[in-house]
Amino acid sequence: MPSKAKTGKKLVIVESPAKSKTIAKYLGEGFIVEASIGHIRDLPQPSELPADLKKTSLGKFAVDVENDFKPYYVVSPDKKKKVAELKAQLKDADALYLATDGDREGEAIAWHLLEVLKPKVPVYRMTFGEITKEAIHRAMDNLRDVDAALVDAQETRRILDRLYGYEISPVLWRKVARGLSAGRVQSVVTRMVVDRERERMAFKSASYWDLTGQFGADSGSFKAKLAAVDGAKVATGRDFNDDGELTSRNVAHLNEELATSLAAALQDADFRVRSVDTKPYTRRPAAPFTTSTLQQEAGRKLRFSSKSTMQIAQRLYENGYITYMRTDSSALSDEAVTAARRQAAELYGPEYVPQSPRVYTSKAANAQEAHEAIRPAGDSFRTPAQVAKQLSGDEFRLYELIWKRTVASQMGDAKGSTATIRLGAVATDGRDAEFSASGTVITFPGFLAAYEEGKDESRGDDDSDEARRLPNVAKGDGLTASEIIAVGHETSPPPRYTEASLTAELEKKGIGRPSTYASTISTIQDRGYVRKQGSALVPSWIAFSVVRLLERHFTDYVDYEFTADMEGDLDKIANGQAVGAAWLKHFYYGEDADPGLLSIVNNLGEIDAREINSVPIADGITLRVGKFGPYLESSLPTVDPKTGEVVESARANVPEDLAPDELTAAKAVELMETAAPEERVLGTDPHTGHTVVAKNGRYGAYVTEIIPEMTEEQLANLPVEYYKNGKPKPPKKPVKAKPRTGSLFKSMTVESVTLDEALQLMSLPRVLGEDAEGNPITVQNGRFGPYLKKGTDSRSIGSEEEIFTITLEQALEIYSQPKQRGARAAVPPLAEFGPDPVSEKNIVVKEGRFGPYITDGITNITVPRSTSLEELTRERAVELLAEKRAKGPVKRTTTRKAPAKKAAVKK
């Protein structure tokens, strides 16, 4: 067979179209750059396996747990067309370059492409940390093979997550609620958020007091704070534990009475300077960004969520503005160090650049190899001003943050001095009071001229030195005192995690990978385990149930150290020091005294679902996590204050926006006392004889009738059906009649609604009459308010009360007017973002049936749970609409009944 003629074409495959366009500019003629658009194949759902494989050892996970955990991969349905296109391009190519990202995920994508495309031409693995002309050319000079160890690590992690989720999640479905999921990292992260809330719930505050005063000298005035009384340090928040107990010895704990009396006794005291201490101040710049520190700082300074940060960084990388954004390394290449030092000298002066370059190493647990820090791309950096017109608003802000941090990392230390003045006086009651004031003066800003790192919320008193200049005073100088006042304080509970502080803690503990933090934090919000309250992460009560079950029955699998050790084991596989199949065997089947996951799942024993879903709140009051959400239940008999009846087991709903630590014993009692009755009997319908009741339901208050069960006598009197042979058929269970119901108007309550009003509500819809064509017109109440209906034509009316007063003539008048499309759109949108670049229609955010959604009038997409309206940007809105368009319309499945078989014709 003759060999294929040389075409001179070389096929380069990357992950994304944006990346392919940027690379194509630098490779020139002869190279065809295509995008795989992420992974082309993955593990299928077990239900999607071929029928002959479902009953084999592959059937449970699509992983052969009896044969070295060999996975069964399938090309994703939405990637079959892409694979066909790549195969067609490969037919005309002389070489294949796999240029996916250089991390484990990118290596796995390259390997899958190799397995599926089965190229018959030379194959080269090509990696680069930035998309610039220089970097691409350097990558072409350093080609290699696909790294089998990195692929093994990624595949092991994928199978591990499948085993974990598929074995543990069903336990949650049975004992907590359907639809819940467990994940190797997500469950541990959820536990961290729950643990912090538990600390807040157990916290007992303590009060303490101190004094502040304004003091004057010839050279100026300054503010100082009481530091000691009679030589004993004044107690601050740090001197108390979380039980509200004073733990420090030899401190003066001032209460309100002691503090106010001391302030009064110092009003006319003779204050003098007791000491002046000056120390040199030096501060070094922060290291260049890693994935983790970029997410943290973008959260603090730009108010970006971790997910938004990574999406914006991805665009900046793919378009050649920054280096690869998934990295644990804070090191800079020699070219980057030179570029940063040169730019710092040009912009701020040579004196701002130290003689020797700064060298940074990663301090995170389980730091992963692979890349340098996140920095501006290129061997020379573009300033923010030079790229401003090419970037969107959020892209510019993130690029500017990365540029400032990188340049500052190679600048000199900030230098100055910190002065501390101790001053005091003897009060009229004989107590000796000593005050203190500190101030830092920066004499050389160094890196601060370019950048200053943000900080997360911390506990205790803010004793940081203010950037202020204190007056020039000497020991023994007299001072005038004014505004000496007593100030009360309460100790504060541990602050809730924000996305930034949670990311920092995950990195510190070595849990998960920085590259997955954004998706993990987004997942626990989308699953309903965590919600945002401002920027704070608040766990739901269902998260408490999930974590409690996992802690008791899957202890290791939500243990922080165990989870971090798993990351270390995956690193060993990536480095070729271990083999994935052997590690998975030990994890799943166990070894010797170390039980595996399978053994633990098979020997769970009895799990008390009611106890798992219960949290004692106060004496006799327990929070239950039920099918329709959390509620309080009292085990103590209580007396209804309105009826005087004794209620054996009262219940009360828990407001959705009430954080767990806010549900104190006092709050629980208040909710129980103010809870509306679950059911109130209104009377008997005179026409049917049925009892009518008002109830509080999941979707609001409503009225309904109670249809009694048929008596034995009535059942016995039902007509009997017979078979053809004359024998009687077994009696059928009678079809239960559907009770009439009606939602209460907004002006009504369960306590106030009357029987007459209930009968009216249950009579809806109300028939008004017919139009000229004989079409009936009705009026009814709906989820979005009262409305008229004629066939498929619905029209809103003013108020609920009009439902019982509107006439046919008034309805006909409304229908004679042109229909106001989107009459509800008169409600102003929640946000507006200007025209969409594709449809050129205005982008707005509206409140919909299932929450806020983004629309340009053509395409709609729900705002993700993990994104609050406050942090939703125009760029993110445009991106979400683009993603929805790319997916195309939702395919709706239809079930078609098989035609009935015809009876065989007897001949």
TrEMBL record:
Marked site: Interaction with DNA: H39, R157, R158, D161, Y166, W173, R326, R527
Record carries keyword Nucleus: no
Source organism (scientific name): Arthrobacter sp. K5
Alphabetical GO biological process terms: DNA topological change
Residues the record marks as active site: Y324 (o-(5'-phospho-dna)-tyrosine intermediate)
Family: Belongs to the type IA topoisomerase family.
Enzyme Commission no: 5.6.2.1
UniProt-annotated stretches for the region Disordered: 454-473, 884-907
Alphabetical list of CDD domains matching this protein: TOP1Ac, TOPRIM_TopoIA_TopoI
Function: Releases the supercoiling and torsional tension of DNA, which is introduced during the DNA replication and transcription, by transiently cleaving and rejoining one strand of the DNA duplex. Introduces a single-strand break via transesterification at a target site in duplex DNA. The scissile phosphodiester is attacked by the catalytic tyrosine of the enzyme, resulting in the formation of a DNA-(5'-phosphotyrosyl)-enzyme intermediate and the expulsion of a 3'-OH DNA strand. The free DNA strand then undergoes passage around the unbroken strand, thus removing DNA supercoils.
Annotated spans, Interaction with DNA: 181-186
Domain Toprim: 9-132
Pfam families: Topoisom_bac (PF01131), Toprim (PF01751), Toprim_C_rpt (PF13368)
Biased amino acid composition, Basic residues: 887-907
HAMAP family reported for this sequence: Topoisom_1_prok (MF_00952)
Catalytic activity, reaction form: ATP-independent breakage of single-stranded DNA, followed by passage and rejoining
Name listed for the protein in its UniProt record: DNA topoisomerase 1
Any GO MF annotation of the entry: DNA topoisomerase type I (single strand cut, ATP-independent) activity
Domain Topo IA-type catalytic: 147-598
Keywords assigned: DNA-binding, Isomerase, Magnesium, Metal-binding, Topoisomerase
Subunit structure: Monomer.
